[in-house]
Specification:
heterodimer, A: 145 residues, 6-stranded antiparallel sheet, 3-stranded antiparallel sheet, 11 strands, B: 139 residues, alpha/beta, 5 strands, 23% helix, 17% strand
Chain lengths: 145, 139
């Protein structure tokens, strides 16, 4: 399990570091998308989650959901393109799940990927992802989770 | 549990891609409590795929004068206005500054304007935005 400045960054996920988002290919071929613990730390307690509807096509790096905390609002940009297969009802009921378990129960959306191989090739994994997050935190002046 | 905090599946959206919104920002440092929410709302609208422009005019031009948003907060001890502006930019909002308003506030467009502003424009650009946008909001 990787960590950067106290932020949990699992090394088995694929990241768009700039957008603070991750993607994971599941055994059934779908892709789960979420946000990083670093994003959660920046946003604070998330109080609202508005995903796109099931069936909607999402372009790579475009908004698949909107999340709000008391002091921040922004899009979750999907690291890969695809069609929305499922939204997270548990997070709809309790958006703070995103903060408490960003890589597990706090997932944002499940997609049927349009081009996983092509899109994921541009994402960062493992030690390279940890290094890229360290660089981003340095540039952002982020002290730690 | 307070049922008002719960969301239903209706709280999902298809998209609003192609919708355009212009927020005309006339409030400035003399009314700091009016200076944060418009950026928050702009970020929210942009996050939902709308194309959002914020146009600073009248006293609003002072919000993008170097040294002002870096220290100004809407509420005592709150987040600085520059951070709200940067969040809006990160969500995709474009920032326009009204050039005819600048002399009245002694703002030099070459040296006094924060880097976050995308374009310094005349009133005709604002008029065009107002006439062509799906929604126009004034703050």
């Amino acid at each position: 399990m990787g960590a950067v400045r106290g932020c949990n960054i699992p090394e088995d996920l694929s990241y768009n570091v700039e957008n603070n988002a991750w993607a994971r290919k599941e055994s059934d071929g779908t892709v789960t998308v979420g946000v990083t613990s670093y994003a959660c730390s920046l946003a604070g307690e998330i109080v609202s989650y508005t995903p796109k509807k099931v069936g909607k096509a999402i372009e790579k790096d475009k908004s698949c959901a909107t999340v709000e905390s008391g002091k921040w609002v922004g899009p979750v940009k999907s690291p890969v393109a695809g069609e929305v297969m499922a939204v997270n009802e548990a997070v709809s009921a309790k958006p703070g799940l995103i903060n408490r378990d960003p890589y597990g129960e706090g997932w944002i959306i499940r997609l049927k990927p349009a081009n996983w191989d092509g899109d994921s090739a541009g994402l960062q994994k493992g030690a390279a992802a940890l290094s890229a997050f360290e660089g981003k935190m340095q540039a952002d002046g982020f002290k730690g989770c | 549990m307070d049922s008002r905090s719960e969301q239903s599946p209706q709280d999902q959206y298809l998209d609003h891609e192609g919708k355009t919104v212009v927020i005309v920002m006339t409030s400035g440092p003399t009314t700091p409590h009016r200076c944060a929410t418009p950026f928050y709302l702009g970020a929210l609208l942009a996050s939902m795929d709308a194309e959002v422009s914020i146009f600073f005019t009248m006293e609003g031009v002072n919000l993008v004068k170097r040294g002002v948003p870096e220290t100004l907060t809407a509420m005592p001890g709150g987040k600085r206005i520059i951070e709200f502006i940067r969040d809006a930019k990160a969500a995709g909002v474009k920032l326009y500054l009204c050039s005819p308003a600048l002399p009245g506030y002694a703002i030099d467009p070459k040296s006094d304007v924060i880097a976050e502003v995308d374009e310094i424009s005349g009133g005709g650009v604002l008029a065009d935005m107002i006439l062509s946008s799906d929604k126009v909001l004034f703050f």
